[in-house]
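TL;DR need structure tokens for one chain.
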Amino acid sequence: MHKSASGSTLGPGGLDLTQAFFKPITNAAPPSTTKQHTKISVIGVGNVGMAIAQTILTQDLTDELVLVDTNADKLRGEMLDLQHAAAFLPRTKIHASTDSSITAGSDLCIVTAGARQIAGESRLNLLQRNLSLFRAIIPPLVSHSPDTTLLIVSNPVDILTYVAWKLSGFPSNRVIGSGTNLDSSRFRFLIADHLDVNAQDVQAYIVGEHGDSSVALWSSISVGGVPVLSFLDKQQIPYEKETLENIHKSVVDSAYEVIRLKGYTSWAIGYSVANLARSILRDQRKIHPVSVLAKGFYGIDGEVFLSLPAQLGRGGILGVTNVHLNLEETQRLVDSAKTILDMQIQLVLPTIMMWFECRQRVEIGKLQSKATYSVEWIGAGGTLRWRDPAEKSFRQSRSVGIGGSFG
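>> reply
TL;DR here they are.
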């Protein structure tokens, strides 16, 4: 039988049906070439960062692991603690430094640095405390590893993934947020617990915001290949919608409960991120609900990152799954996008100073330079003005989208 380039033989005459299942990413960068030597950098050695590092090591996902943090003593202590376990681990070189240049040549940069979430604090409230941190972190990572994929874990992950995308200048398929990959695992666990089955036999997704406005895709849930809700309807087995809503509420409240009990989350997110790293670096093309640029999908118009089931591989996001959403789920997803967009608008404070190092020639009106520009947002409308370092006053003004995209 004739096979298409992708290997699909499901279509008439062996036609490739890939695009029927996946929506392509526009302006995507080509996948990076597979290398014999892999390098992962973890930025931030807090509880989450170290849980990720430990899981990456035990699962033998990389040849070289780099840790970066501003706390030199803690950083060295964590590095030594891992190095001393060398006899019990796969052979992985472990390095650490406060200087981001150590990340040079990374295949994957995992950003976990950020203010710790306080008990009862929503992820969105964390944002203001993490913005300045990202302005210091992302540009150096991009400079040292221009071909890397960025995996953002810091909360609130959806908006910070958007910020990382804008600061990096990368194609959107190479900037990924950990999103609802962990939420979906919690969802599968709770459903499996209700049905007394193995969670690995449950196919279920949480999409949208990694947070309070997330959306449970009940219409597409299956257990052992059996669509759950349609099966119950056909068998005339009653179920209460309140029960479904309570399961989703338990998913949303899970992180808050763990934080209340132990002060932070770590192990589950460590396994979740290692799971994503494996799919990316080993080009497994597995589907994960991660934070992607959602504009153009499911009726979402704004430039917003939120979680959708996406195929991951060496190129980062390879495509977004064409999963079925009913009308209610679609509306909730659009509402979730609006929640994130509203917060992005609030980020545009009366004056926010940001610095962009322009590595390529940019043209803004009559101003042409490779210099570093001082960029300023004025008001919630997103009016931007900038100046060349040689000038004392701002010369240009223009209305732009949140994030400072120009040129």
